[in-house]
Design goal:
stress response, A-crystallin/Hsp20_dom, Small_HSP, flat, single chain, HSP20-like_chaperone, HSP20-like chaperone
């Protein structure tokens, strides 16, 4: 007597459990997982290349009818003395500084500090934007209010003789 046992099929491959979308669903999930891995790896590489320097977000408002262009940087929790605004003659405006944690967060003893949620970033930041070459410090206005640094400069720069010079520091109002 011959005994035959049925071949067990994987439930995902069983004809009664498949639809036309199932084979593509698993492929889609695999590709999505790989994409997330690549994006996270890219972010880690970029952060490592920047030396851990944060880049504050910026909005640049360039209204054609206005004589000025305004850049607004997010710098919450900082005083104007903690922010540097520098200009080079080749048309680069850089803001930089260091966001320090408040004194009550400065204690890093693991037995003392518990962070159920920790999303605020502290440390060095820097952001450089292009401005018209030949722009002078006297033409730039910078002010800080409510964690927003506003820097304005004239749209049209007089055709002055461009020369390479040291970085100039801009004072804030």
């Amino acid at each position: 007597m011959t005994v035959t046992t049925p071949i067990s099929m994987n439930r995902h491959l069983h004809p009664s459990n498949t639809s036309h979308a199932d084979p593509y669903h698993s492929l889609d999930r695999a590709l999505a997982a790989k994409y997330v891995q690549l994006v996270l790896a890219h972010r880690r590489r970029v952060a490592a290349a920047a030396g851990g320097v944060m880049r504050p977000r910026v909005e640049i408002c360039d209204q054609p009818q206005s004589r000025f262009v305004t850049a607004t940087f997010e710098v919450p929790g900082l005083k104007k003395e903690e922010i540097g605004v520098h200009l080079t003659h080749d048309g680069r405006l850089t803001i930089s500084g260091n966001r320090r944690p408040p004194p009550f967060l400065a204690n890093t003893d693991p037995s003392f500090v518990v962070y159920p949620v920790k999303e605020i970033k502290y440390g060095r930041f820097e952001r450089t934007i292009n401005v018209p070459a030949g722009l002078e410090v006297k033409d730039i206005n910078a002010s800080l209010a409510d964690g927003m640094l506003c820097v304005s400069w004239p749209r049209d720069v007089s055709p002055a003789v461009l020369h390479q010079g040291p970085t100039q520091v801009i004072g804030m109002a």
